[in-house]
Write a structure and sequence with these properties.
The complex is a heterodimer of chains A (317) and B (293). With 317 residues, chain A is an all-alpha fold. Chain A contains twelve helices and two strands; from the N terminus they run ααββαααααααααα. The chains are: A mainly alpha (317), B mainly alpha (293).
């Protein structure tokens, strides 16, 4: 690099050192943010940890008046709403990704992926607004009664249905995570070598057989990464869920019943939480949510990285 | 010989038919998924435009909110408040994010760089509400009250990972020969990076900044207990401030029709801002002003 060291003055050397140090500080800031998040969350959830220990995550009662706090209903709500969302979003996203990379005419490819990524640009609060005034009336009038009639026997679709429910939360979450899963899947499908497709076609495979054997099978790890990334987003999604889930801290089997999630209890109660234990219990929920999403995201990144070999993802925005 | 050929002819067609049908069914299924995904997208945009255009008026864009339950008024203070918080976030987040990106691209081809890269990607997935708690702990508790600054810090924390990764990506696209040419002229490394490499990648770096900006512009959760909201005008860093997404949230959950109307108008304004930012980015990228091409 230093082709002509003799010509480079002392000021250049000094400037380089200062510059490198300043840029290093910015890089360290990224690590610092993570450390800061962990430090603050652990520090400020201490009261609750000392008061309840591990029982915090197994308790059913959420009673701020008597300072009894158990996070199980929120953990349950977060898990159920997220898995419901995955159940709906995964087939849709993979279908969209397969269609855009393997089937659709090249003219449509770019506009189609643009439209799907537009879904990712809509703010969470706008999804919530739309869900309250458009989605929920549709669910209560048409979809809910239909599910009640056909699948009521499972016990998952029973009881009165007022719209705000775990069911509505799962559907709005599904719409929100489709762009993440499908854009990662598309990225992963595009790095599958062309000769895999050609080989399958040369053996006489139909297009679907080529996709199944030549493309999807090679992209399994990356698609799994995309799904887990979508799961991470669903677990932490706050506003839209808070607006439609009904905010009821009880565990109900029926998806028609209102529920509550970890993120939405923070959104609703944090700014009004009085009392050290109450606030620290909420922060402990935040800490749990943080740890879960960190693990989920790290796992997803590793899976996607192994496929795209460390290329920065264009779809994480 | 002829017989085996014949029997082959007899057995092959049904299998081929089944495979062809499967092929068509799967193609149909893929088309169906595309339709199922695009329907909500168009439903959301169509309804947003329909309600938004019907709801937006001069008062909405110029007045502050009326007292609870009273019709009229607007979100002017929230629109300005959002711009103010976003400006604060950019002032903090953009230099740090770009700096981290420069570090990764120019000095970070090692394990430490990989650690930063991985951390940035993982930070991208941290729920925004958790970022809100952290901003509350380090700014609101330290100051003793809610403030625009706390919201700005929360949004800046969300911008940094995105900006650093896109900046790195863009700097790496600048040909190595350009750097070497500059070194050959005896230009120090810092000067090369700032005036040659970063300059060449400017449009790409700005693209990354705009995408990060568009992403945090609609964020509500990290503002709930940092900027809190405000019924009045505020442009002071240390005071609670109104923000458009917060106002939409509050009004959407209220029982008043006029507030619902204003929530739609607010959502319309917000989405226009975000879509404009994204469209500008796509346009700039397509124009290929990017020097590395």
């Amino acid at each position: 690099m230093q082709a002509v060291p003799a010509l480079r003055g002392g000021s250049g050397e000094m400037g380089d050192r200062i510059f490198k140090f300043a840029m290093l500080l910015c890089g360290v800031a990224v690590l610092g943010i993570l450390v800061l998040i962990v430090y603050e969350l652990i520090l400020r959830s201490g009261d609750s940890w000392h008061a309840f220990g591990f029982k915090f995550f197994a308790g059913h009662d959420w009673d701020p008046v008597n300072e009894q706090f158990g996070a199980l209903p929120f953990i349950y709500g977060t898990l159920v709403s997220s898995f419901l969302a995955l159940l709906i979003a995964v087939p849709l996203s993979i279908g969209v990704a397969v269609f855009t990379t393997e089937m659709c005419p090249p003219v449509l490819r770019s506009p189609l992926s643009f439209f799907v990524e537009l879904l990712a640009a809509i703010p969470s609060v706008v999804y919530g607004l739309w869900a309250i005034f458009v989605l929920i009336p549709i669910l209560t009038n048409y979809v809910g009664p239909f599910f009640g009639r056909t699948l009521g026997w499972t016990g998952l679709f029973t009881g009165p249905f007022y719209g705000v429910s775990m069911f509505a939360a799962g559907i709005i979450l599904a719409i929100m995570i489709v762009p993440i899963i499908s854009s990662i899947t598309r990225e992963v499908l595009m790095v599958v070598p062309q000769h895999q497709r050609e080989a399958a076609l040369a053996l006489g495979a139909t297009r679907w057989e080529m996709i199944r054997v030549g493309v999807l099978r090679n992209a399994r790890a990356g698609i799994m990464g995309g799904i887990i990334l979508g799961l991470g987003r669903a677990l932490g999604e706050t506003m839209a869920v808070t607006m439609v889930i009904g905010n009821n801290p009880q565990i109900m089997k029926s998806l028609f019943a209102p529920g509550y999630t970890m993120a939405s209890v923070l959104a609703n109660e944090f700014s009004e939480a009085t009392g050290a234990v109450y606030r620290s219990a909420l922060i402990e929920i935040g800490l749990a949510l943080f740890l879960v999403t960190i693990v989920v995201n790290a796992l997803a990144r590793l899976l996607v990285w192994t496929v795209t070999r460390g290329q920065p993802s264009r779809a994480n925005g | 010989m002829a017989e085996t050929a014949n029997s082959a002819l007899h057995t092959v067609p049904p299998i081929a038919l089944r495979r062809r049908i499967t092929d068509h069914v799967m193609t149909g299924a893929a088309v169906l998924t595309v339709i199922l995904v695009l329907v909500p997208l168009f439903a959301i945009f169509a309804y947003l435009v329909y309600r938004g255009i019907g709801s937006i008026n001069w008062a909405f864009l110029t007045q502050t909110p009326k007292p609870v339950g009273e019709a009229g008024g607007g979100m002017a203070n929230a629109i300005v408040g959002s711009a103010f918080i976003l400006a604060l976030a950019s002032v903090i987040g953009v230099p740090v994010g770009v700096g981290a990106g420069i570090y990764l691209a120019e000095f970070g081809r090692n394990r430490f760089g990989d650690a930063i890269r991985f951390t940035a990607d993982v930070l991208n997935g941290v729920p925004s509400i958790v970022i809100g708690i952290v901003a509350y702990s380090i700014v609101v508790l330290a100051q003793g009250h809610f403030s625009a600054l706390a919201g700005g810090v929360a949004l800046a924390i969300m911008m940094i990972p995105t900006i650093s990764r896109t900046t790195e990506e863009m700097l790496l696209l600048v040909p190595q020969a350009l750097r070497e040419a500059a070194y050959g002229l005896g230009i120090p490394r810092w000067r090369t990076t700032l005036s040659i490499t970063l300059r060449t990648a400017t449009s790409g770096v700005i693209t990354g900044i705009m995408l990060a900006f568009a992403r945090v512009a609609g964020e509500t959760a990290p503002l709930l207990f940092t900027t809190l909201g405000n019924q009045f005008w505020n442009l002071r860093v240390n005071e609670p401030t109104a923000a458009l997404p917060l106002q939409i949230y509050t009004y959407a959950l209220s029982p008043y029709d006029d507030w619902h109307r204003q929530a739609w108008a607010g959502a319309f304004v917000l989405i226009i801002l975000i879509v404009t930012a994204i469209a500008a980015v796509r346009f700039a990228v397509r124009r290929g002003t990017f020097g590395a091409a």
